[in-house]
Specification:
This protein has 274 residues and is of the alpha/beta class. It has one domain: P-loop containing nucleotide triphosphate hydrolases (Rossmann fold). 34% of the residues lie in helices and 15% in strands. An eight-stranded parallel sheet has the order 7-6-5-1-4-2-3-8, sandwiched between helices. β6, α7 and β7 form a beta-alpha-beta unit. 38% of the residues are buried.
Length: 274
């Protein structure tokens, strides 16, 4: 857990930062709770700025969330290959260290910005804002944001995206929505990934996974697919394409106000270290 976002505050230790608690005040004398609330408020403000910036260029931003190893990067690779030149794609990659995933995307000829979060267990809006300084959004239709592999914290931080997609991989088990409801409840689409393993891992029941989603009041559609044998990929591509078309239609019906804040981002290299 990271020390910068407050996700190290738990029910067990939150009394320490409450009034009268041992850690009520920071070293600078500020109230700890106030500091955390201010951080979240600033994140939401920057997220709105990011979203407006995407909208200025008719770019759809999709935030991919899952546990580590659920297949986010493999999904992006298959998506790029299946879409071909139909839609112009850029990718923002989030990991604690390395550029491994970004390099996989770049090998396919697609722009990929790597964010190294250090000890932070999720991306936040400020990190995305910095990454946008390295993207000319006029050249793209979609920006996929691959969040840090984590089933908890990424769901709590708005990045400025238009849609959240949560991956549930077959090897993880079908009860993950019940164990980690916040992430799956915030998803606009849930994808059951690595479905090519269903014949081997037959204790995963897709229908049971859907029931767990219903139990947490998720109304998100569910797509089962395999990035390996491409089963179900057409459904995913159709969903993404529909999201792009719907966003463009929305912006045509609700144009940005002329007084909206605008600034030009400079474009540098593909590596953003936070």
């Amino acid at each position: 857990m990271c020390d910068t976002c407050g996700c190290n505050i738990t029910h067990g230790n939150e009394s320490l930062i409450r009034p009268g608690g041992k850690l009520q005040k920071t070293e600078s004398g500020k109230e700890a709770v106030t500091v955390l609330h201010s951080l979240l408020h600033e994140n939401d403000h920057t997220a709105k700025h990011n979203r407006d910036h995407f909208d200025q260029h008719n770019v759809l931003a999709i935030n991919l969330m899952s546990s580590p190893g659920a297949g986010k990067t493999a999904l992006l690779e298959a998506t790029i290959q299946q879409m071909g030149e139909g839609l112009r794609i850029a990718v923002i990659e989030g990991d604690l260290e390395t550029e491994n995933d970004a390099e996989r995307i770049r090998k396919l000829g697609v722009k990929a910005i790597q964010i190294a979060t250090g000890s932070a267990c999720h991306l936040d809006a400020h990190m995305i804002h910095d990454a946008l300084h390295n993207l000319d959004l006029a050249e793209y239709d979609i920006v996929f944001i691959e969040n840090v592999g984590n089933l908890v914290c990424p769901a709590s931080f708005d990045l400025g995206q238009h849609a959240n997609v949560a991956l549930l991989s077959v090897p993880e088990g079908d009860d993950k929505p019940a164990k980690y409801p916040v992430m799956f409840r915030t998803a606009d689409l849930v994808m059951i990934s690595k479905c090519d393993l269903l014949p081997i891992l037959d204790d995963f029941d897709p229908e049971r996974a859907k029931q767990y989603l219903q139990d947490i009041a998720s109304t998100a559609p569910v797509i089962a697919l395999s990035s390996k044998n491409l089963a179900g990929m057409n459904n995913w591509i159709e969903w993404v394409t529909q999201q792009v078309e719907e966003r463009i239609a929305y912006l045509e019906a609700h144009p940005l106000q002329s007084g909206h804040h605008h600034h030009q981002h400079d474009h540098h290299d593909d590596n953003v270290v936070v």
